[in-house]
Each structure stands twice: as C-alpha cells, then as structure tokens.
Design a protein that fits this description.
The longest helix has 24 residues, at about 555-580. The protein is built from 14 helices and 22 strands. It is α+β, with helices and mostly antiparallel strands. The protein has helices at about 1-20, 255-260, 330-340, 355-370, 375-390, 390-405, 410-420, 420-435, 445-465, 505-510, 510-525, 535-550, 555-580, 585-590; strands at about 60, 65-70, 85-90, 90-95, 100-110, 120-125, 135-145, 160, 165, 170-175, 180-190, 195-205, 210-220, 235-240, 245-250, 260-265, 270-275, 275-285, 290-295, 300-305, 310, 315-325. About 40% of the residues are buried. It folds into 2 domains: about 1-20 and about 360-590, no CATH class; about 60-85 and about 140-350, Distorted Sandwich (Beta-galactosidase, Chain A, domain 5). A 9-stranded antiparallel beta sheet has the order 8-10-11-12-22-18-17-14-15, with no helix packed on it. Keywords: Cell membrane, Chaperone, Membrane, Protein transport, Transmembrane, Transmembrane helix, Transport. GO terms for molecular function: membrane insertase activity. Interacts with the Sec translocase complex via SecD. Specifically interacts with transmembrane segments of nascent integral membrane proteins during membrane integration. Its main location: membrane.
Length: about 600
C-alpha cells in the first residue's frame, strides 16, 4: 500500500507539472536578411509607416496620379479613397476595399468579445491604417510579355463591374484595365459560413503572348497579441501533401528559403491561426502550388503561389482558389473537409500530441452536447463514459487494494520477523503476493491512463471554440473560463466584485468549483486509513488542498470533469472494496480512529 501511495503521488505531481509549465520568456524576432518573394526574387522594401507590401517585381499604381508610382516601396502617401463593397452573410459582416481589391474588413456576426450582450463583435480582418492591419488579397506577378506596372498592385483602384453587396446569393466582380491590352477581373463569392471563392481572370487583347503567375496572400502587420501558452499553437498553420506544419510568429523571421517555401504537389493549404479564429488560403484540391510563410520588415505573410500561365494573343485565362476567414467551428471545418475535399482541414484545429485522444474525446463531447443541449452536463456524461470504459481496470485495481488490506496483518508479522533484513522482507512479501494472487502495481495502471485522458480533455476545453462562452448552470456562464465566484465577496452575497482573474487575490479567494474539487479529493483519500509513515501522512493530508489552489484558475469545464471524476471514483472504490470483503470506515478515517477490518470470510462484510 505504501508503494501505491508513492506511485499515486509521483504520477499526479508529474502530470500537473507538465500542465502548469508556461513559456515565460520568448526571444524577440530577428529579421531575416535577403528574404525572397513568391518568384524567388528579393522582396521590395516597405515604408516605416506600415504601407502595404508590394509583391516582388511589381510596382504600385496610383490611379490618382494616372500612372506608375515606380518600383520598390510605396511612397507612403495616403491610399486613394475608393468605394467599398459590403459583405453580408449569416456569419460575416464587412467590406471589400476596391483599392487593391482586398478583403480587409471582416466581423464575425455570431461571436462577441465578451459575454455581455452589447459587447463588440469579434473582428478578424482590419484595413491598413488601423491598429492591427490584417487582410487577404489576390493578384498576378508579371513574368514575360508584360511590365511589372501592367499588372494590378497594392494601390490599384478596381472598378465595380457587377454586384453591390456580396452575399451567398450574389457574387461581386471587380475589373481593371491596364490600358496596355490586358483586362483583369476578380470575382468574389461567399457561402453562408466562412468560405470565400475567388476567381481571377485576365483577358489578353495584345498581339503577343503574356506569361503571368497568380497568387493569393494573407498579411498581418506586426506580431499579434497571443495567449503564449505552451498548450496552444498560434501562428502559421499549413498542410502540404498530408504533412501538417505549425510555425510560431517568433520563428518566421529566421526561416531559410527552403523552410519558408514548400512545393506542394497535390493538396494543401496555408494561413494564420489564432486560438479560435483562422484565415487560410486554399488552392483547388488536386492542384500544385508553392506554399510560402515568411516575415518581411514586421509584416507576416502566408502565400499560395501558382504555376506560371501563358495567355495567347486574343485569349483569356482564369485561376480559382478559396479563402477561409472565420471561426474554427469543428462541424463547419469538418464539412469543408468531407464535402469540399479540403485535405485534412480538421487538423487546422490544434489537437496537440495526443490527437488520437483529443479528437475522439471532442467528437463524443460535441455529440453529447447536441443531444443534451448543455456543455456542462455533456462533460459530466462524458466523465461517466470514460469511467465506464476504464471500469475493468478500476475493478482490478480496487480489488487488489482490498486484498492487500486483508494481508496487512500478515505483512506486519513479516516485518517483525525480518527485522533489518530488507532482502528477506522483500522475498517474504513477494511470496505472500504470489500465494494470494495480488499484484501491488495493479493500482498504478488506472492512474497512468488518467494522465493522458486528463491532459487531452484539458486541451479540448482550452482550444476548442465550442467551449467558449458555453454556459452550465447559475453563475457558470463560460466553461472555458475560471469559476467567477469568490470567497472574497461570499459568492456574491457582499456588495463588491470578485478579484480580477489572474490577480493574487483571485488565486487566494477561490470560487465554489475549486472548493468542491478539494472536498471531493479529500473524501476520496479518506476511503483509506492514513499511511503509518508521518511524512506520507502529512503529504496526503495537504495534497487535496494544494491541488485546490493549483487548479483554482483552471477552466471551470475542467474542474467539473475532475469533480465528477472524483465522485464516480469514490463510489466505485467504495462499492468494489465492499464487494471484495473490506468495508472502508470513512467516518473513522476522517476522525483518525479507523476501525475498518476485513469481512468475515464465512459471512457478509462488516458494516
């Protein structure tokens, strides 16, 4: 039993040591000299005022000036004022900027910043000139038969050819005539969720062939604020022919050309992922392209660059691609993967190292939530399912523990006979275990299995959008956030607010769920008498309350799981040990005067 106690303490301490590790210090990003663009040529410099990055080999065209603004960096002058096309769908609201033809203003209609009903909507894209520019654009790179200033650039003013408002039923088309025989069009469509379809076309009315290279690009000006927690990836996420790659923002500046650019043969996608939101460039399934992730002068970029195409004189050509810009809803992303053929798109959600557990755990949780209609009760039912799956191991463990308690008197006699001879004591104990068919290590297996399950559930609750702002009962309005109740104001009875989350007072004045967690863990431990060793006895006496404070700031959904797990484990252990002929003396263990004894072999268990 002493060995089991030590194993329990060690396994639990190690598991929480892993969970509570934070990355406290991140080195500042270093700019990569000589960064290259989609075609392998040096990237143009950009001005210090955060003007848009010009694709390599292109010029910016200032329609107000009526001609090319020259190669290299934009001049830093104000972008010309132009009309905007509205975006209105059941999931998105925003506008398309006719300058550059970029999607740079996007709100998520079904998500707010906080729980308050009048809280601002979550904003995904922002235009240049705002605090955090973040947008998507599509264009062409001139290779042969056309000068760099004869293809649309960052400041190109597109004309509205068709449509006034982008909706799932009404696409819009922009057009730009370069005045030298090339007419460019950009048709943008959107579905009811978060997927844009972009069709770029070019018409060649010259008397010579023109070779161009289409591309899509997502830009983020400056490194965004991130959670910076080791359990979550935020930054670049891309799939390249079945291989998933995640790149942190801090790592982008130091990437070599070989690391930055990947030639994708058949299927892939590339973009930026936040905790709950994502923007991703998605070429047509089955097409080859160059996937690029890089940083240039403080602008973070992901690109999908397609093969060069040649447009014959009098001919035309189009290139189609998709842009996902929205919330990482599991069901929506899975539908895009299954119905639209986007390869492993579900892996854009950060499932982590234990993906073989996190994926089925979340799928079960999602299904239970759909059936029950409440994510908190779904977590409790999921706990029951997990305990049912592990019941055979739990039964074997608790049955072995009950038998070992029956052997306790004989083990004490062995200790007396062996004295200081540890080898003789070990041999005697092994013979005793073998004779009575008891495995002293059997109690460790359920504990070891619980560690990855707990970690996986923690991952699911922390990273999945479906837990965000999910209510349970009464005061629990967000299962992804810590318990908002607090001893500081007697759980709302006193007329002042609880301490701010993350503050020292919030860590001290716990809420209802952490207190229930400590009590449930303490009762579970009281099923067994205190260990005879004074040090072990002290450690086990304090451990429930230490864990209560350690986990007090964790997501309330995770605490609900742990409390339910403790209650079920307590019930299982009590019933199994009674069935094995040993009746735990819970009240005696609490008082420290345990009188539990093995049941009479010829009669029912003692009560």
């Amino acid at each position: 039993m002493d060995e089991q106690n030590r194993n329990l303490l060690l396994a639990t301490a190690l598991s929480f040591a892993v969970i509570l590790i934070w990355f406290l210090l991140f080195p500042p990003p270093e700019q990569a000299p000589g960064a290259t663009g989609p075609d392998g040529r040096p990237v143009a410099e950009i001005s210090d005022d955060g003007a848009p990055l010009t694709p390599p080999g292109q010029t910016t065209v200032d329609p107000a000036a009526g001609g090319a603004a020259g190669t290299g960096a934009p001049s830093g002058e104000a972008t010309p004022e132009a009309a905007r096309l509205a975006i209105e769908t059941p999931s998105l609201t925003g506008t398309i900027n006719t300058v550059g033809g970029r999607i740079d203003d996007l709100l998520l209609d079904n998500y707010r910043e906080t729980l308050e009903p009048d809280s601002p909507l979550v904003r995904l894209f922002e235009p240049t000139g705002s605090a955090n520019p973040y947008y998507a654009l599509h264009g062409w790179i001139a290779l042969e038969g056309a000068a760099a200033d004869q293809v649309p650039g960052d400041s190109t003013l597109w004309q509205i050819e068709e449509g006034e408002t982008l909706t799932p039923e009404t696409p819009v088309t922009l057009v730009w005539d370069n005045g030298a025989g090339l007419v460019f069009r950009k048709t943008i469509a959107v579905d009811e969720d978060f997927m844009f379809s972009v069709t770029q076309s070019v018409e060649n009315t010259t008397d010579g062939a023109v070779t161009l290279r289409p591309y899509g690009q997502i830009r983020r000006h400056g490194q965004p604020d991130t959670v910076n927690f080791f359990i979550l990836h935020e930054g670049v996420v891309r799939m390249s022919d079945g291989e998933l790659e995640e790149i942190d923002y801090d790592d982008l500046p130091g990437l070599s050309t070989e690391e930055s650019q990947i030639e994708v043969a058949e299927n892939g996608w590339v973009g930026f992922t936040d905790k709950y939101w994502m923007s991703t460039l998605i070429p047509s399934p089955g097409s080859d392209f160059r996937s690029v992730a890089r940083e240039v002068n403080g602008i973070y970029l992901t690109e999908s660059v397609y093969n060069p195409v040649t447009i014959a004189p009098g001919g035309s050509l189009s290139a189609e691609s998709q842009l996902f810009a929205g919330a990482k809803e599991w069901e929506t992303i899975r539908e895009y993967q299954n119905e639209a053929g986007i390869d492993r798109f579900i892996d854009s959600i950060d499932w982590g190292w234990f993906f073989f557990l996190t994926k089925p755990i979340f799928a079960m949780l999602h299904w239970l939530n759909a059936m029950i209609g409440n994510m908190g009760w779904a977590i409790i039912v999921l706990t029951l399912v997990i305990k049912a799956v592990l019941f055979p191991l739990a039964y074997k463990s608790y049955a072995s523990m009950a038998k070992m308690k029956e052997l306790q008197p004989e083990m004490e006699k062995l200790k007396e006979r062996a004295g200081d001879d540890k080898q003789k004591l070990q041999q005697g104990m092994m013979e005793l275990y073998k004779k009575n068919k008891v495995n002293p290590a059997s109690g460790c297996l359920p504990i070891l299995l619980q560690i990855p399950i707990f970690f996986s559930l923690y991952k699911v609750i922390f990273v999945t959008l479906e837990l965000r702002h999910a209510p349970f009962v009464l005061w629990l309005r967000d299962l992804s956030a810590p318990d908002p109740s607090s001893l500081f104001n007697l759980f709302g009875l006193l007329p002042w607010a609880a301490p701010e989350p993350g503050s020292i007072l919030a860590l001290i004045f716990l809420g209802i769920l952490p207190i229930l967690l400590g009590i449930s863990m303490w009762l579970q431990m009281k099923l067994n008498p205190a260990p005879p060793d004074p040090t072990q006895r002290m450690i086990f006496a304090w451990m429930p309350w230490i864990f209560m404070f350690m986990l007090g700031s964790f997501a309330s959904g995770l605490l609900i799981y742990w409390i339910a797990n403790n209650i079920i484990t307590f019930t299982q252990q009590y019933l199994i040990m009674r069935a094995q002929g040993y009746t735990p003396d819970l009240l005696g263990n609490i008082r420290g005067t345990s009188s539990s004894t093995p049941a009479n072999k010829s009669g029912p268990p003692k009560k």
